[in-house]
């Protein structure tokens, strides 16, 4: 669906010229700046990397940090989420603020809205916020630069929503958020029919990439400095349905884990109904696959799981966790839980508490159910009162906080290898620590030895071996470097070299600035780097 809506350009909009590379420059010849803001999940964060890559290929440049923070840019793209009830509130709150910013900016600006909520609301976004210039969906990310040009030329809002995937996103130019770790999509879409979820409607049926394409992208990431990759899919372990191999995901894990130079492999998110023992075997047998698993529970009540159309039951779920821990004793397992699904009784909720207690999750993302128009659950009877949902939610959070605290306390005294990251520790400057992720993905804040020179300090992308000295429900502290003879071993990696090269403006294959970790809301994409174009594999690439 393509729609052009009349929307007169501001009177103070700058004159623009079309650059020789197909992008747009200002009348003075300087390139137009951009900022991509991400609301939502890891899939959205990775989609934003593609949006940034396409804009840079078209001749735009990332806004400098100060300008990005002030949203003083020529083009601002909001990549939206539609999973939660407050997703629309977040979008329109942002757009309301940007209306004033756009009016007051001397050079004018363009505002584009993409992602899941754009796919859902379509032209309704421009109707509610007529200062928006471009709306595009989840199936046609590739049209963003063209729509921006068309909107400027026509002085009108451009809305283009495709009903099915036009170009597989992983073939698009990509400006990576991190030089030392990267996302790799192995599939898009979802074939499940969970009654609470709008994702299949917005992202379509599952489509799998060929294994050779995935391995080529992983190798390209490694060649430019990455030592960690996370495989992405709405139901990542359903991979292979498109070409009839139900064991394809386990095979893919082994193959990706064997890529030379790659040190850490993660994946998210699997579905319990499709989780098979061959995946556990692949995790246990592949040293580079990290001892971490995110396994969404959603509810511990079998009755509620049936109403959710989640095709597993609590005993099967706990059985998977038991087998994972038997094969990988130190695995950290995380989850998602929804409280207050329509018709959930107190007895149902107590069952959820029972399963959470038995599962011993290291952490959990807990949500209060919110009806999403267009999903079957939105029309179910027995929608629960807000106060009941809130009270249950607080009980669940209190239980998980206790379990997380106990599980993290058991880590004290352990040696862990921490991949130092940028942006993980908000208080690092005040505490004189650096932060990163252990193999099991726990967040670790670690102290540096007294007198350590900046030249010897670990960089993002380097690995540091430390001993855990303190714990809290949501992080670990490793101050072993402060004790006489305490554990502190730095391994300077080529990923750290790549990070330093980028920081010094010397990188040859720019991935982009390191952003916050997975699941972060409000990631701003806009670092002074160029896109990475990842093509399809050449003839002769072996498949798994």
Please describe what this structure looks like.
The radius of gyration is 24 Å and the shape is globular. Helix 10 packs parallel to helix 12. It is built from 16 helices and 25 strands. By secondary structure, the protein is an alpha/beta fold. Helices cover 31% and strands 20% of the residues. The two termini are 37 Å apart. The strands form six sheets. Strands 1, 4, 5, 6, 7, 8, 9 and 25 form an eight-stranded mixed beta sheet that branches. A seven-stranded mixed beta sheet has the order 22-23-20-19-18-21-24. [4Fe-4S] cluster 1 binds at residues 41, 81, 116. Keywords: 4Fe-4S, Cytoplasm, Iron, Iron-sulfur, Metal-binding, S-adenosyl-L-methionine, Transferase, tRNA processing.
Distance between the termini: 37 Å
Which strand-content bin applies to the residues? 15-25%
Number of helices: 16
| Count of strand segments | 25
Query: What is the approximate shape?
Result: globular
Keywords: 4Fe-4S, Cytoplasm, Iron, Iron-sulfur, Metal-binding, S-adenosyl-L-methionine, Transferase, tRNA processing
Cofactor: [4Fe-4S] cluster
Domain Radical SAM core: 176-406
Pfam families: Radical_SAM, UPF0004
Brief overview:
This protein is of the alpha/beta class. It is built from 16 helices and 25 strands.
List keywords for this structure.
544 residues; alpha/beta; eight-stranded mixed sheet; seven-stranded mixed sheet; globular; disordered C terminus
């Amino acid at each position: 669906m393509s729609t052009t809506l009349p929307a007169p350009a501001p009177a103070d909009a700058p004159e623009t010229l079309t650059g020789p590379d197909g992008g747009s420059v200002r009348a003075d010849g300087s390139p137009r700046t951009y900022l991509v803001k991400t609301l939502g999940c890891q899939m959205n964060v990775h989609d934003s990397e593609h949006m940034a890559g396409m804009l840079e290929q078209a001749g735009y440049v990332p806004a400098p940090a100060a300008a990005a923070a002030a949203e003083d840019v020529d083009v601002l793209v909001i990549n939206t989420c539609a999973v939660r009830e407050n997703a629309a509130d977040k979008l329109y709150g942002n757009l309301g603020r940007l209306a004033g910013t756009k009016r007051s900016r001397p050079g004018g600006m363009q505002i584009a809205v993409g992602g899941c909520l754009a796919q859902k609301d379509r032209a309704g976004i421009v109707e509610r916020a007529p200062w928006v210039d471009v709306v595009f969906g989840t199936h046609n990310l590739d049209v963003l630069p063209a729509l921006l040009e068309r909107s400027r030329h026509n002085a009108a809002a451009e809305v283009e929503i495709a009903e099915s995937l036009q170009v597989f996103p992983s073939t698009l130019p990509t400006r990576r958020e991190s030089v030392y770790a990267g996302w790799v999509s192995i599939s898009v879409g979802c074939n499940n029919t969970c009654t609470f979820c709008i994702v299949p409607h917005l992202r379509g049926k599952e489509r799998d990439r060929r294994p050779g394409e995935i391995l080529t992208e992983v190798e390209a990431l490694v060649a430019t400095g990455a030592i960690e990759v996370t495989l992405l899919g709405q139901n990542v372990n359903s991979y292979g349905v498109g070409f009839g191999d139900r064991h394809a995901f386990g095979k893919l894990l082994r193959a990706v884990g064997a890529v030379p130079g790659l040190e850490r492999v993660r994946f998210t998110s699997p579905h319990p109904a499709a989780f098979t023992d061959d995946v556990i075997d692949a995790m246990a047998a592949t040293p580079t696959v990290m001892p971490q698993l995110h396994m969404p529970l959603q509810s511990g009540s079998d009755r509620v799981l049936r109403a959710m159309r989640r095709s597993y039951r609590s005993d099967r779920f706990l059985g998977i966790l038991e087998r994972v821990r038997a094969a990988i004793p130190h695995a950290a397992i995380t989850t998602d839980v929804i409280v207050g699904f329509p018709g959930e009784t107190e007895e149902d909720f107590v069952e959820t508490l029972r399963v959470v207690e038995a599962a011993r999750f290291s952490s959990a993302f807990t949500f209060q159910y919110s009806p999403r128009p267009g999903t079957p659950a939105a029309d179910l009877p027995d929608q629960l009162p807000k106060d009941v949902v809130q009270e249950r939610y607080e009980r669940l959070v209190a239980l998980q906080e206790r379990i997380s605290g106990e599980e993290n306390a058991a880590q004290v005294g352990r040696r862990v290898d921490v991949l130092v990251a940028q942006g993980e520790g908000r208080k690092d400057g005040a505490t004189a620590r650096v932060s990163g992720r252990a193999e099991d993905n726990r967040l670790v804040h670690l102290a540096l030895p007294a007198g350590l020179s900046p030249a010897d300090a670990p960089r993002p992308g380097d690995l540091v071996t430390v001993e855990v000295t303190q714990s809290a429900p949501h992080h670990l502290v490793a101050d072993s470097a402060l004790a006489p003879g305490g554990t502190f071993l730095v391994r300077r990696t080529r990923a750290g070299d790549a990070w330093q090269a980028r920081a010094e403006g010397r990188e040859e294959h720019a991935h982009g600035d390191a952003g916050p970790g997975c699941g972060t809301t409000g990631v701003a994409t806009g670092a002074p780097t160029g896109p990475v174009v990842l093509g399809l594999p050449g003839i002769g690439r072996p498949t798994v």
